[in-house]
Design brief:
By secondary structure, the protein is mainly β. The protein has no helices and 23 strands. Strands 1, 2, 6, 9, 12, 13, 16, 17, 20 and 21 form a 10-stranded parallel sheet that branches. Strands 3, 4, 7, 10, 14, 18 and 22 form a 7-stranded parallel sheet that branches. It is globular, with a radius of gyration of 15 Å. The protein starts with a strand and ends with a strand.
Length: 208
């Protein structure tokens, strides 16, 4: 199991990488997943926690042939937690499909001020996030349980895909298509099947 110092609100923890990129204004970081990764047995805990990466600034993520990620099944974040990324901005378009993402059998458990099935916080960047199932008959299925999310924060978003979408006035672009969400949540939060809390962002639902 992986744990960072939760008393530091910038401490990042990820099943594979704690932090990617040089922060706001830094250069883009390219990551290629060439072989399948299975982190489903791990528990990740920190201030900003992700089932794959804790925090990623200006990241470009691509997959090689047949490669996929099975993220951690339990992600505990004080400020943000997500099934893939606790907090992220993109340098290039990112497409997530059933071929790329293997959800643990029991689903994903997240916690924290902003908690999401894939992203705790997803902000504006150069890339668009595309989450797509194969078809309406074969959707991308996300089973998410959010717990311990009560907070006095003004944000506190809980979403089946993204907890907090866009924390600035610039748009964070998201395209959802054929996504089936089962979300269970408790606590004093803004809760949405796709996005918990949306600020200055653009969401496109493509499958009607």
């Amino acid at each position: 199991n992986i744990k960072s110092v939760t008393g530091n609100d910038k401490a990042c923890a990820g099943a594979i990488v704690g932090k990617l990129g040089g922060g706001d204004g830094g250069n883009a970081t390219s990551v290629v997943v060439n072989k399948s990764i299975d982190a489903s047995a791990l528990t990740v805990a920190g201030a900003i926690s992700g089932g794959f990466v804790g925090r990623a600034d200006k990241v470009s993520l691509t997959f090689g042939d047949g490669a996929s990620i099975a993220p951690s099944s339990t992600i505990k974040g004080v400020n943000a937690s997500g099934g893939l990324f606790g907090w992220a901005t993109l340098a290039a378009d990112l497409e997530i499909t059933p071929a790329h993402l293997k959800i643990p059998d029991g689903g994903i458990g997240v916690s924290g001020t902003d908690a999401g099935g894939l992203f705790g916080v997803f902000g504006s960047g150069d890339g668009k996030l595309m989450v797509r199932g194969t078809s309406k008959e074969a959707p991308l299925k996300l089973k998410v349980t959010a717990s311990n999310v009560a907070s006095d924060s003004y944000s506190k978003g809980v979403g089946g895909v993204i907890g907090m979408l866009g924390w600035t006035t610039a748009a964070a672009r998201v395209d959802l298509e054929n996504v089936d969400v089962e979300l269970t949540s408790n606590g004093n939060s803004y809760v949405g099947g796709a996005v918990g809390n949306c600020w200055g962002s653009s969401v496109v639902k493509s499958d009607g």
